[in-house]
Amino acid sequence: MLGQMMNRPLLISMIARHALKWHGRREIVSITADQPRHRYTYAEAFARAKKLSNVLVKAGMGRGDRIATLAWNDFRHFEIYYGVSCAGFVCHTINPRLFEDQIVYIVNHAEDRWLFLDPAFVPLIEKVQERLKKVERYVVLTDDAHMPATTLPNAVSYEALIANESAQCEWPEFDENTASSLCYTSGTTGDPKGVMYSHRSTVLHSLGSALPDAEDLSNNDTVLAVVPMFHVNAWGLPYTGPMVGAKLVFPGPKMGDPEALCDLIENEGVNFAAAVPTVWQGMVAYLEKSGKRPGKLQRVLSGGSAVPVALMDQLRDKYGVEVMHAWGMTENSPIGSVCSFSPEANALPREQRDALRAKQGRCVFGVEMKIVDDNDDELPHDGKAFGALKIRGPWVASSYYKREDSTAFDANGWFGTGDVATIDPLGYMQITDRTKDVIKSGGEWISSIELENLAVSHPAVAQAAVISVAHPKWQERPLLIVVPKPNQSVTREELLSFYVGKVAKWWIPDDVVFVDKLPLTATGKLSKLQLRQQFKDYRLPESQ
Ligand code: AMP
Known about the structure:
Blueprint: H1 12-22, E1 27-30, E2 38-41, H2 42-58, E3 66-70, H3 75-85, E4 90-93, H4 100-110, E5 114-117, H5 122-128, E6 137-140, E7 155-157, H6 158-163, E8 179-185, E9 193-198, H7 199-210, E10 222-225, H8 232-235, H9 237-244, E11 247-250, H10 258-268, E12 272-275, H11 277-290, E13 299-302, H12 309-319, E14 322-328, E15 335-338, H13 343-346, H14 350-356, E16 362-363, E17 368-372, E18 387-392, E19 415-423, E20 429-434, E21 439-441, E22 444-446, H15 448-456, E23 461-471, E24 475-484, H16 492-498, E25 511-514, H17 528-534
Parallel strand pairs: 1-11, 3-4, 3-5, 4-8, 5-6, 6-7, 10-11, 10-12, 12-13, 13-14, 24-25
Antiparallel strand pairs: 1-2, 8-9, 14-15, 15-16, 17-18, 18-19, 19-20, 21-22, 23-24
The structure holds adenosine monophosphate.
């Protein structure tokens, strides 16, 4: 027997309609290249998104056609999210920090028909335009007054494109499993892989991530989305925000500028922000130097890479800002777990509770999670056993776009994340490594992330990375690579003895190398691949 409930499709237009009707007055504030502080309401945003839908329909776009963006976080990008997806087309966000060849590959693989780009990226696309096979039209995200001179064929400013269009548009209804947006993950090897989100997965992910033990968002919140809209849909915030009616604040090209971020936080009343740990590191350094305070900021969601506890302590103890550690990935829309406190965790002594914050947290409803050994057998939740992390759920990818060769999706319907993790008896998951970064010393695993976290808790260390280097007896041993804080000095011996008593003796790195900076990937994460290449001929002192 079937239930007798309405079978309304879960479409992104449902979020838009709700926000338009019930949160129409709520503001969206942006910095853009042409406007230092643009502000308008959801009502105005969705009216303009409808104009864009009309433009695209008249231009002959068909259901499922891909339309690309190469853009910062701002109101125009927000309009494209809705104007494209709600009309039944696919919004393909591209990371401008990728290598040129990767961008060319991605645009061609997705067969993007139009490309919307920020003025800042015009020179980049001009260089590769002849290789972009299917792009028919380039739309520069500005107005005619700020339109750069360009050799891009058929280029038009966004404002001119939508200016004379009607804002009357009934977004169509279709199957909730219809594709809505596309994001490529830039793996460290091989071609980037596309994750094709659906309307259903997007709506469910927004619901799941708004829950109290996840982001805990409501229409009383003012949300600063520093996480880029070109990478996993800014962790879903452009959808979750309108769903709950939160005020949205977008930093545009200023996402790496702590002074501008601080200004937005203070003047727009931001109380919730989301960004990767390097942003928070920059923010703390700026606050320390300027003596400023982070306004009403209460909670920050940090993910993408592990957040050092020392950084969380500093933000909480000095600035009253609670960092919520989260884990996710492109294939998971991205939110998978958030480190919120359960009653059992709250009952722990303060020191243990504080230490728990280093973990990536507990599963958000909607995601199922397990750790397995090499035989795919599930490992216990004892906080010690570490194994490959697998997930499944309605907002987890079931395959990569136009690629059937991936081994990440198993026959039982689970996705292998490529992460290695432990899960403790209270259900807190901790990432100990990427599968390919884990250090195997004499067959036993050493967590590079744990060694890095400890290194950055040393007062003289700004950044740290631990990679494996070849060893004649143990096959692999850890090498610690450190960027010291400015005007601070620390020795190899001091750092190595800092580990004593904190980890097993055989985990302590064999050597330390000091560098000025660490290489980063296109998504701002530490590039261990580059580091391993840089140190591939490195010989440990005893093995020389
Ligand atoms: P991406 O798909 O580019 O967003 O990258 C996802 C990967 O980033 C995950 O598989 C993890 O390896 C890593 N990651 C995400 N969040 C965290 C976190 N909180 N701590 C450690 N690693 C993380």
